[in-house]
Fold this sequence. Notes:
- It is a single chain.
- By secondary structure, the protein is α/β, with parallel strands linked by helices.
- The chain has one domain: Alpha/beta knot (3-Layer(aba) Sandwich).
- It has helices at residues 3-10, 20-32, 34-37, 66-79, 122-128, 165-179, and strands spanning 44-47, 53-56, 81-83, 90-95, 107-112, 134-138, 154-156.
- A 4-stranded antiparallel β-sheet has the order 1-2-4-3. Strands 6-5-7 form a 3-stranded parallel β-sheet, with no helix packed on it.
- The radius of gyration is 17 Å and the shape is globular.
- S-adenosylmethionine (SAM) binds at residues 112-115, 139-140, 142-144, 146-147, 157-159, 161-165, 168.
Amino acid sequence: MAGKKRYLLKNKRDPAEYRPDIAFQAIQYILDSRVNKIGRLKALYVKTQQGILFQIKPHARLPRTYKRFSGLMVQLLQKLHITASGKGEKLLRVIKNPVTQYLPIKSRKIGFSHSSEKLVKMHDYVGTVNSELDLVFVVGAMAHGKIDKDYVEDYVSISSFPLSAVYCLSIITNALEQKWDIL
Ligand SMILES: C[S@@+](CC[C@H](N)C(=O)[O-])C[C@H]1O[C@@H](n2cnc3c(N)ncnc32)[C@H](O)[C@@H]1O
């Protein structure tokens, strides 16, 4: 048994609830997207299983290996921020809950779950949202459990299949890239 799994079991925690690898993939995917490259990703927030909320600046360049990413996360949780070398800008920062206080007022907050009864074609769906509204997407970067539904205004499923977080993000970013004509 791997060391981390043994540690979690010894401390009576369920290893299935500790999947920072999913968050790693998801964050990397979002930062690499053309939506971000063109500057249309305005903010990225991550909430841990324990309820710690942190913000990642869209122009942050995070480690590309999982091992170095894990090291950075440990540093973030200890120091509460990660500063860019030289400039002093906080690229990652632990912030106070709830996340809603940071979201734009004029926005459409869209939650994603396979269990939603509202099955939509993402491409058509983003086309129907008033373009004066900022779009907020809430996707679960975990293996089990559901996203917080309390503040989302729309709760949609985008496939009849249960998808991985990264695959779900690919459908969202592709729909936006088409909507905004980003090549
Ligand atoms: C591995 S899934 C989590 C599984 C969890 N049992 C669930 O159904 O939400 C990761 C995330 O991808 C998103 N997701 C997966 N399949 C989806 C679907 N068919 N429609 C919309 N979102 C989906 C959800 O946000 C989910 O939290």
